[in-house]
Amino acid sequence: MTMQKWIMSGLFFVACALALALMFTLPGKEEVAEEAKPTMPEVTLDAAAAEATLKASCITCHGDQLQGGAGPALQQVGGHMDTNALFSVITKGRKGMPAFKDQLKPDEIANLALYLSEKK
C-alpha cells in the first residue's frame, strides 16, 4: 500500500512539473493574436517592384494577367479585400495558397498588398 502512495505522489509531481513547463513555454493570447494577424509595415507603393514580385511569385497560380488559374483571379481583388487583409493572406496563406512569409520580406509583401488593393 505504501508503494502505491509513492507511485501516486511521483505521478502527481511529474504532472505538476509538466504543467509548469507548459505554462512557461506555450504562447500567450497576445502572441497568438499577433501571429494570427500580422502587422503590415508602412511602405510607399513601388509599382515596378510589385510587378516584379508578382511575376516572380504569383503568376504561376494567378495567371500572367491576374486572370486566375490554379488560384483565383486578382484583377479586381482590391474591390473586396483591403490592404491589411491582402497582407495577411499573402503572409500566412489561405486554403490552397501557401504562406509567403518565408519567401518574401514583410516590406515586399506590404508593397504587393498595396499594389493589389488598387485593382478594383
CATH domain class of the largest domain: Mainly Alpha
Q: Give me the secondary-structure category.
A: mainly alpha
Major sheet attributes: none
Oligomeric description of these chains: single chain
Output the CATH homologous superfamily of the largest domain.
Answer: Cytochrome c-like domain
CATH topology of the largest domain: Cytochrome Bc1 Complex, Chain D, domain 2
General shape: elongated
Strand content: under 5%
Spans where pLDDT lies below 50 across 5 or more residues: none
Please state the average pLDDT score. 87
Helix content: 55-70%
**CATH architecture of the largest domain, please?**
Orthogonal Bundle
Terminal residue distance: 76 Å
| Number of distinct helices | 6
Give the count of structural domains: 2
Let me know the number of strands.
0
Order of helices and strands: HHHHHH
Keywords:
6 helices, Cytochrome_c550/c551-like, metal-binding, electron transport
